[in-house]
Amino acid sequence: MIKYKTFNLLESFETNTYLVWDTDSKEAIIIDPAAPSDNLAEQISAMDLKIVHIFNTHGHGDHIGGNEYFHRLYNCPIGIHPYDADMLLNAALNLSDFMYTPIISPAANYLLRDRDSIYLGEIRGEVFHTPGHTKGGIVIYFAPYLFSGDTLFNLDVGRTDLPGGDFNQLANSIKEKIFSLPDETIVLPGHGPASTVGKEKQENPYVK
Ligand SMILES: [Zn+2]
Ligand SMILES: [Zn+2]
Asked: Minimum-distance ligand to the CA of 34?
């Protein structure tokens, strides 16, 4: 059974970092570690979880700032879409140059592409490429949960005025890849509160 917990590791950006695990195997992933966090590491130890991957939904600085810390701590591979992989290594590209302390992550250990399968124990999840906020944006689906990064928020969508952004592409990504999932899918975004696919289909003013 899949469970998750939300952490806010970067107060100024309120990025949602998600710890996601399989209760049988205790295998876990960290999605978008926003910053180093001893508290998160302690909770991982207390729950006896084994971190098997770090996934970045995209390459912006507020979603990758903890990559180095957790990568070193757990010696676990980092996965990101190929179009955003260079952002890990370049503070100008990941925009942290302009936001706060420049952030450099270790390089990606492997690349995540559209429809790739990922596993926690025996539970299969799936990656969808959802460009529009950045070129390499992805969402991660472990039914009934969808970790939607900065592609889709509760009644809002990711901004498209940054480098690589494109509103029409973002709207298409959401309609084709996310709105095709069951209505009861729980949407867990990169910022702000959770939603459901059904609610967003009905009420999201940007992609109705
Ligand atoms: Zn972003
Ligand atoms: Zn963000």
From this structure: 2
The model's pTM: 0.97
pLDDT tens profile 27-49: 999 999 999 999 999 999 999 99
Q: How far is the CA of 115 from the centre of ligand 2 (A)?
A: 23
Query: Does 2-203 carry CATH code 3.40.50.9100?
Result: no
In angstroms, what is the span from residue 134 Cα to ligand 1's centroid?
7
Residue 24 Cα to ligand 1 midpoint, Å, equals: 32
List the chain domain ranges.
2-203
Ligand nearest to the CA of 32: 2
pLDDT in tens, 118-159: 999 999 999 999 999 999 999 999 999 999 999 999 999 999
| CA distance linking residue 167 with residue 169, whole number of Å | 5
